[in-house]
Amino acid sequence: MYASREDIGYDFGDDSKVRSKPIKPNPNIDGGWAWMIVLSSFLVHILIMGSQMALGILNMEWLEEFNQSRGLTAWVSSLSMGITLIVGPFIGLFISMCGCRTTAIIGGILNALGWILSAYASNVHYLFLTFGVTAGIGSGMVYLPAVVMVGQYFQKRRALAQGLSTTGTGFGAFLMTALLKYLCIEFGWRNAMFIQGAISLNLCVCGALMRPLSPKDLREKYVVRSDSEENRAKALSHSTETIKSNGVLGEEPEKKEEAANEEVLGSVQHTELGGKSGSGRSMYGLRLFKTVSQLTITVRKGFALWYSSYFGAASLFTNRVFVAFIIWALFAYSSFVIPFIHLPEIVKQYNLSKQDNVFPLTSIIAIVHIFGKVILGIISDLPCISTWNVFLMANFTLVTCILTLPLMQTYAGLAVVCALIGFSSGYFSLMPVVTEDLVGTKHLANAYGIIICANGISALFGPPFAGWIYDITQKYDFSFYIAGLLYMVGIICLLIQPCIQKKQPREKSTEEAQV
């Protein structure tokens, strides 16, 4: 099956030239500050994804407080989860223009503001705006940079690094469930949200840790990648022809634009140097003009990269496997989100609250989820194992658990299924790795933004749909069955793609590759 993007023939602008000069790898790639990036991403997953996985506690409080239907109330949690992921493509534009660090810090402030304003909610519709939209956008502005930065800093141990950082979701779900339950009992849900807003300000600290790599460091990473792939030089001619046929190699216009931009800035600097004898007001005006020019150039370059990734000749949508990946993401995420939102209600219906209070089922998912991400990441990094195959096997296991869950009506049965859901959903740590293999590091931010946007649409409509089905049938069984069947459709889309083939032999000659 699928192994890496060169087998498919898509490279999307990665620097694939084989260099004869050995370049000393940067110590911060796969080591050094890279582990601080993992720590930052880990904390982001605790504070954002972990908090969202614990929203079932607040959902029950909102049902009692506002006395609305389950379908309408579930929209609050769904908006927050969905918008966090849906804004991914637009956050990719922010990252292209401002960088990951600035984007994450702004997002941390916005997320905290959403939690704090939600403490003063007078109805569910108020929560739609403050918690769903405001906190959701802020979460998205922190989440995407946290994932992208790990991909930039790691090459050899990408799956393990992503697995370690995303275990924050499991830790966060376990910790935040206990924390929110305690805060709601002791202080009420309004004060609990206010306190959580103050805690969320730590996202700004996580953003400050996202030190960007220099262009030189990124080039060195590409060199390490090209040297480590045996078939790279042999397939270079074939890959170049394939990419050219898709219109991906568009570096010359970019170079011309950069040269024009440098000429503009150079003329401004020349004018500034020549006018030193002028008045102070003129000098201030020149400096202001130079600053505005630099800002304009940065925005134009960032927007050009973002636009070309989605709509230009180098559009990511020319990759058919990537398109199938998007279709899968549209159906997959709701199957994971629905249990977190509605399990507390299901436990209450089955009169299992006593056992669930001792050890909540959502906490079981969260704890096993941690081990699932790490173990699947380690397995995927083994040289004899295909990341794609591990990814598919985990998906098959998860969809089986979703279809089986309604059949379990005892605490022991539900606990076993929840443990399997937690472990198999560890494939989330492989999603950035699979995405990067498909499109390359250069387009990772935009490509992963599309994937999490599709996940966001799934998360947005999944829980309200489950609540709506319950309002009609007075049970959640059909919600899980329908979600599981849609999930299976997404997996089938990945399997039937003609581009997903078994790995070709590595010992092909250049002539055979061209044929």
Automatic annotation (TrEMBL):
InterPro entries: MFS, MFS_dom, MFS_trans_sf, Proton-linked_MCT. Keywords: Membrane, Transmembrane, Transmembrane helix. Coiled coil: none annotated. One of its GO terms (cellular component) is membrane. The chain crosses the membrane at residues 33-55, 75-95, 102-120, 126-148, 160-180, 192-210, 321-341, 361-379, 386-405, 411-434, 446-466, 478-496. One of its GO terms (molecular function) is monocarboxylic acid transmembrane transporter activity. This is MOT14 protein. It comes from Panurus biarmicus (Bearded tit).
